[in-house]
């Protein structure tokens, strides 16, 4: 097919029928380039065709449960089984299976960057901007309480904790290790 397109491009100047093939070829090339750019801009959604829809489902589950431990009905697992599998294989989620069960008992959203990706895609930008501003402007030696921020900004604690985790991973501070705590101490 590729050689046919090359010949049509050469012949296009002299043959009107070939011009149609050239136009179609150029449009297909533009579509391929756009798909490659989309994959660079949004690598998570390009993992599998069902990932964007599943991401929306996971986002709503995070908001409704305010926890990174989630469980879904069997029909959701069935519908998005490949998307769940690829997210698990990439380390974005962790599936917990039970012997004899066809579907996971629950999943844990293990990657804070994936949680922030979901938040960036589906949450109000203003809320995320306020949260990031608070963490970014936190002075060395200052503690931030995630639950106080949650009341002020009205974001689920799971998103606030994910931001704290990302800042900690970059060496900018530490997160409290106490159970049920959501605090961040700025060290840089």
Q: How would you characterize the overall build of this protein?
A:
There is one protein chain. By secondary structure, the protein is mainly alpha-helical. It folds into 3 domains: 2-41; 46-112; 125-186, Arc Repressor Mutant, subunit A (Orthogonal Bundle), CATH 1.10.10.10. It contains 9 helices and 6 strands; from the N terminus they run αααβααββααβααββ. It has helices spanning 2-11, 16-41, 51-65, 74-79, 81-89, 112-122, 125-136, 146-153, 157-169; strands at residues 69-70, 93-96, 106-109, 143-145, 173-175, 183-186. The strands form 2 sheets. It has a 3-stranded antiparallel beta sheet with strand order 1-3-2. The relative contact order is 0.09. The model has no long low-confidence stretch (mean pLDDT 86).
**Sheet having the most strands:** 3 strands, antiparallel
Number of helices: 9
Query: Reading side by side through the largest sheet, how are the strands ordered?
Result: 1-3-2
Order of helices and strands: HHHEHHEEHHEHHEE
Which ranges are low-confidence, i.e. pLDDT below 50, for 5 or more consecutive residues? none
Mean pLDDT: 86
Query: What shape does the CA trace take?
Result: globular
Beta-strand fraction estimate? 5-15%
| Rg, nearest Å | 23 Å
How many discrete domains? 3
The SS-based structural class is: mainly alpha
Distance between the termini: 57 Å
Give me the count of strands.
6
Summarize the amount of helix as a percent range.
55-70%
């Amino acid at each position: 097919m590729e050689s046919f397109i090359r010949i049509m491009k050469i012949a296009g100047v002299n043959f009107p029928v070939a011009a149609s093939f050239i136009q179609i070829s150029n449009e297909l090339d533009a579509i391929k380039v756009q798909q490659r750019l989309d994959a660079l801009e949004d690598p998570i959604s390009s993992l599998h065709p069902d990932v964007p829809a599943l991401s929306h489902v996971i986002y709503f589950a995070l908001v409704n449960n305010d926890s990174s431990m989630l469980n879904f009905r069997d029909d959701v697992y069935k519908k998005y089984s490949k998307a769940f599998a690829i997210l698990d294989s990439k380390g974005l989620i962790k599936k917990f299976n039970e012997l004899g069960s066809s579907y996971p008992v629950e999943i844990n959203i293990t990657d804070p960057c994936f949680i922030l990706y979901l938040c960036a895609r589906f949450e109000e930008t203003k809320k995320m901007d306020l949260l990031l501003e608070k963490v970014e402007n936190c002075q060395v030696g200052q503690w931030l309480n995630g639950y106080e921020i949650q009341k002020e900004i009205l974001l689920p604690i799971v998103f606030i904790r994910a931001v704290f985790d990302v800042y900690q991973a970059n060496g900018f501070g530490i997160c409290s290790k106490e159970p049920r705590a959501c605090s961040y101490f700025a060290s840089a």
